[in-house]
Design brief:
Elements lengths: L1 H17 L12 E6 L2 E2 L4 E6 L3 E8 L3 E5 L4 E5 L4 E7 L4 E7 L4 E9 L1
Parallel strand pairs: 1-4, 3-9
Antiparallel strand pairs: 1-2, 4-7, 5-6, 5-8, 8-9
The structure holds copper (II) ion.
The site of copper (II) ion (CU) has 4 residues, from loops.
Length: 114
């Protein structure tokens, strides 16, 4: 757990060092989604990224489930009370559901603009 967090921190620092603002117009801030009682706090979170940028978000959930990013078809398990992070290139434009897979509960709406 601590090691994973440290690895993520190092990866983030490495990314910043490797890319000192050169393509910052294409990247987006990390969106943090909090799931409470198996629902997204504040409603379904919009995440908008330009194609060619990176999709970055983290999910902290009070229930264990699998986070599924439709379209890109990425899956990651989150433990009860745990946090997971996604960081991937926005290669496909369109609108995609991000949900708690076993509950079919949408938590975020990903929009990648062409
Ligand atoms: Cu799904």
């Amino acid at each position: 757990m601590g090691l994973v967090a440290a690895a993520v921190a190092i990866a983030v620092v490495a990314f910043i060092v490797a890319d000192p603002g050169g393509s910052s117009h294409k990247s987006s801030a990390v969106t943090h989604i909090v799931v409470k009682n198996a629902k997204p706090v504040g409603g379904i979170k919009p995440i908008t990224v330009a194609k060619g940028g990176r999709v970055r978000f983290s999910v902290t959930s009070d229930v264990g489930d699998e986070i599924h990013v439709h379209g890109y078809n990425f899956h990651k398990d989150v433990k009860p009370g745990g946090t997971i992070s996604f960081d991937f290139p926005a290669t496909i434009d369109g609108q995609f559901v991000i949900e708690l897979e076993s509950r079919s509960e949408q938590i975020a709406a990903l929009k990648v603009t062409p």
